[in-house]
Amino acid sequence: MWLFGYGSLIWRPDLEFEDSKVGYIKGHVRRFWQSSTDHRGTEEAPGRVVTLIPYEEFSQRFTDDDMHSSDQDDITWGVAYKVPASKVAETKAYLDHREKNGYETHFLDVFQPSTHIPVVEKAIVYIGSTDNSEFAGPAPLDLIAQQIYASHGPSGANKDYLLNLAHALRIVAPTGTDQHLFELESKVKELMLKEAGSQEAFDLMLSKIIVQSHPAPVTPV
């Protein structure tokens, strides 16, 4: 079984795998448009995590609400993991529970720039569709950044999720782009710097958040 991660699975897979490949899926846009009340927020104060929006739906419904729509392509970078056959049932049950808050399984091909054919066919991808009950939808980036900065849940601070995702994506896919993600990262870091009061204090704060080494033996693409 192959699994494609485009969010926390990039930097915190927490599963046993025997192979991994950096790559991208086509036809979708990654956005922080999914509420998180079970991991990075609470029912009273939801956080925001990423989901995938089909590119055609994004183009038809959300371009007026998204400041990056004019330069947005349909490629989403991430990491595909091959789960050993002996661990498939256990891993699928774990992932179904981990992604229970509005996500459903889809099957998508994974590509790399060096080839026009998939390097992984029909990888499992967990996606929170725009009609799921936890879909938060678009909002001004400043408001999303404030929400991420302030939210905490059972899995930790929402800003830790954002910052580690941006950090890991730069490591595994340095040629990839995600302006929505990286601008949110910049805005949250501005809020952190204001809280820290100095660059030195900010650097120390950031060093305690970022996972310095990627858990998967991946080769950057």
TrEMBL record:
Transmembrane segments: none annotated. This is glutathione-specific gamma-glutamylcyclotransferase. GO terms for biological process: glutathione catabolic process. GO terms for molecular function: glutathione specific gamma-glutamylcyclotransferase activity. GO terms for cellular component: cytoplasm. Keywords: Lyase. The gene is CHAC2. Its EC number is 4.3.2.7. It is an enzyme of class 4 (lyase). It comes from Linnemannia hyalina.
